[in-house]
Every structure is written in C-alpha cells, then in structure tokens.
Amino acid sequence: EPARYDHLCDLVAEAAARFGERPALSVYVGEERHDVSYEALLARVRAVQKRLVDAGVAPGERVVLSAQNHPDWVVNFFGIVFAGAVAVPLDTGLGPEQVRTVLQKAQPAGAIVDAERRQAWAPVLGEPVWDVHLMAATGPAAPAPHPAQSSDVASILFTSGTTGEPKGVMLTHQNFTAL
User: Fold this and answer.
1) How buried is residue 176: exposed, middle or buried, by Cβ count under 10 Å (0-12/13-18/19+)?
2) In whole numbers, what is the pLDDT of the chain averaged over residues?
3) Which helix (H) or strand (E) holds 81?
C-alpha cells in the first residue's frame, strides 16, 4: 500500500530518506545531463526555506514563482512550502497587465522569477524580487520545515480568466498528497 502523507514537507523528506542519491530531477544543458538527487533536492529546498525566512517571509504569506522549465523551479516551489508560505505559480506567457491583476489579488510578499520574467514584468512586479537560480543554490539550510497542517494552503493557482477576471484556486497540502 502506498504511503500517505499529511503534507508536502513529509513527502519530500521521506523521498530524500528513501531514495538518497538517486536522481529526483534532471536537466539537459546541450547534450549533458545534470541530475539533482533526492538528498540534494531536500538540502536545496531547506536553503530556499532559510533564505525566505531570513528575508522576512512569514507563514501564510504568498510568494509568486515563475520561470522556464528547470529543476530550480521545483526547488523553489518546495522551499516556499517548507517556509510555510503559499506558492503562487504564474504562467511564463502572461503579459504585464495579466500579472498586475493576479498580483493585486494575491498580494504576495515577494516573487521568485527568472531573468526573462524580471525584465518583462519589471513595471508590475514590485519588491522584493529574487532570482530563481540564486534562490535554489546550495547554502545554509533551515533545520526543519515550518510545521504544516494538511488543511494549510500550499499553493494558489490562478485560472486563465477566459470568462472574466482570473480566480485563485487554493490547494491545500492534502490536495497535493491525496491518493
């Protein structure tokens, strides 16, 4: 029978303990494959957690996340969750006005974006804005994730707004870990 998890932090920590040095994430740079092991994933997630907490991001606050497909996106997503904050992923194809609408609704404590999003959305992003790759780098780690409940919101996904304004869909830890 598959394991049941109350929240995403348990799932990531258990995967690191169970799978250790096996690849969790991979990215190709040209023809060369770069892997991130489960243990390294957990260490980098806790480094992001520490950076966010040190920057003053409090549990329950929202943090925007937008970047091209890359393992660092995953590291940052879980780092936000480990800090007890709420990840608000944004589609990289959104224009500045669409981003402004979402930011007005989400009221984020900051944004983690790649260089392209920083440049494209500069007029509307506000501060602080952190670089997705620098945030996901190895570094000092938080000792443990913020204690989460299964009913805590882990992420808010915004609809495309095809029939009106985008609406935020709140997903709890339990929504992500349900079997």
Assistant:
1) middle
2) 94
3) helix 71-82
> CB neighbours (10 Å) of residue 41?
22
CA distance 170 to 154: 8
- Give 131-167 pLDDT, tens digit per residue: 999 999 999 999 899 998 999 999 999 987 677 788 9
DSSP structural state of residue 160: -
CA separation for the pair 134, 23 (Å, rounded): 21
How far apart are the C-alpha atoms of 176 and 8, rounded to whole Å?
7
Q: What is the pLDDT of residue 4?
A: 79
Residue 49 has a pLDDT of 97
- Asked if residue 119 lies in contact with residue 142, where contact means CB atoms within 8 angstroms, the answer is no
Tokens of 21: 């040095």
For residue 173, the model assigns a pLDDT of 95
Q: What is the pLDDT of residues 55-72, one digit of tens each?
A: 999 999 999 999 999 999
- In sequence order, what E strands does the chain have? 23-29, 32-37, 62-66, 86-89, 110-113, 129-131, 153-158, 168-172
Cα–Cα distance measured from residue 121 to residue 103, given in angstroms and rounded to the nearest whole number: 11
Give the C-alpha separation, 140 to 72, whole Å. Answer: 17
